[in-house]
Sequence to fold (368 residues):
Amino acid sequence: MECLKCHKSIPDDAIVCCYCGKRLGTQNRKAKKRPNGTGCIYKLGGNRVKPWGIKKNGTFLGAYSTKAMAIETLEKLQKKPVSEAYNFTLEEVRELWKKEHYPVLSEKGRESYDLAWSLFEPIKENKMRDIRTEDVQKLVDVQVSKGRSRSQCEKIRGLYSQLCKVAMREDILDKNYALFLRLPKSKRPDRLVFTEKEIKMLKVDAKTNDTSKIILMLIYTGFRINELLQLPKAGVNLEKGIFTGGEKTEAGKNRVVPIHPEILAYVQEFMREAKEDLFLSGYAGNKDDHNFRSREYYPTLERLGIRSEDRPMKPHTCRYTFATRGAKSGVSQEALQKLMGHAKYDTTTDFYIQDDVDMLKKEMKKLK
Fold:
């Protein structure tokens, strides 16, 4: 064998040239140790597709197919504190968020988020750090293909945004990927309303049917279904001729709605029959909003021939009817917004509540 440096003949098994001292052959060189606190890269055992693992502060951060990818990832994490949360799955991040937020949410709010979360089933076991916009976009696209509205898709985005914010706080992510989701364009729905003929049919039926009386009270108050079903007796003042109730928004809570003459007799009757705290506690039918809708409201409308496949007439139709009839009857925009609970009024207006009630009563008389 010939030395590569001095070109003199040397033994075949020589490690060092005996003439010039040149080291011969390859030697395993130990990798340079990384500085303390910057993490480590090591070879995982077994025959793996991703044999290179990385750790930082004792936390395993993942496996990679090449050492170069492992080094690149570790370099990106140098300025970020790393904790066990870095390995959280989407479901674990959701549990952390849920523990913090559910205690202050209403029952309706929790139900809404639970429904949205059920749509994340395909990716809930994925590492939060690995989920990107396109992963959630696929979930949105599935809902769009099923004909879901923009508002329903916004529930997915809203929940994912909340989870991204938690992940950012825990240094799992560095941005809110929910901001880049593409939602379908809003379509202005065709709002169904009860016709005057249908309202007359309900009035005739109300002579012998309590459910029709409740439907008419919804039409003449603009209350949401649960607002009326959960209205306390204390929220009905027959002497002043007003309801005080509402929920959901700041503008809608404890709003004043005059009792229209067309439903006054029904209100008086239900007040006489109320044996408990709720205004409708004497009603013999279902008082849970879901059960009332399916077992009382829909069957009554179907029996009268008002509800059909083309006209589903959901409970919120009563609210649309109230707003539409009010606008057509000349009720002022200010009064209508106040009655619907859609507007905020300043402190001065709130202080002069009696003047406000008188104005609302005057406007309500415009409804026939």
About this structure: Confidence is low (pLDDT under 50) at residues 344-356. The beta strands are 40-43, 52-56, 59-64, 236-237, 242-245, 255-258. DSSP finds 14 helices and six strands in the chain. The longest helix spans residues 150-169.
